[in-house]
Amino acid sequence: MQHYVPATTQVLVSVMGVDLSPDGRNAKVAISFMPIGQQATGVPRDAFTQLIKKTMQRIDSDQWELKRFLSQQLGKKIRRIPLLAFEWDQGPQRAAKMHALLN
Questions:
Q1: Residue range of the domain that includes 24
Q2: Is 2 within a domain?
Q3: Using CA of residue 87, residue 53, residue 34, residue 67, what is the dihedral sign?
Q4: Among positive and negative, which fits the CA dihedral 64, 70, 71, 72?
C-alpha cells in the first residue's frame, strides 16, 4: 500500500557527524531527517521512508554544488574539500519510535 505524503510536508536535514579519512580526501557525513510542516505528524512510516530516499537522491545529485558551497565557505581554512558520502543516520528516528512505544 502506498501512502500519500502531503505537499506541505518538508524534511529537516541535520548533520549528526562527519568521519574524515586520514588523508582528508573523503568524508562520510551522517545525516538524520525529521518531517516538518503542517501535517508532518501524520505521515506514515513507509511514506516518510520514501520521502527520505527522494531527499537522499537529491543530496547525492547536488553533491558537487554542496562541495562548491563548502569550498567558498571554508576554502581558506582547510587545504582540500573532501569528497562527501552521505549516510542516513536512523538513530534519532529509532529513539523517537522507542519513546512513542514507551509512552
A1: 10-102
A2: no
A3: positive
A4: positive
7-60: pLDDT as tens digits: 546 778 888 899 999 998 999 999 888 877 655 566 677 777 888 888 888 888
Looking up residue 78, the CATH number of its domain turns out to be 3.30.300.20
Number of structural domains (the chain) is 1
Is residue 91 one of the residues assigned to a domain? Answer: yes
Checking DSSP bridges between strand 10-20 and strand 26-36, what pairing results, if any? antiparallel
User: Mean pLDDT over residues 94-102, rounded?
Assistant: 68
Query: 6 Cβ partners below 8 Å, 6+ apart?
Result: 37, 38, 39, 43
Helix (H) / strand (E) containing 29: strand 26-36
Count of beta carbons in the 10 Å neighbourhood of residue 21 = 11
- Report pTM: 0.70
DSSP H stretches of helix in 7-90:
45-61, 63-74
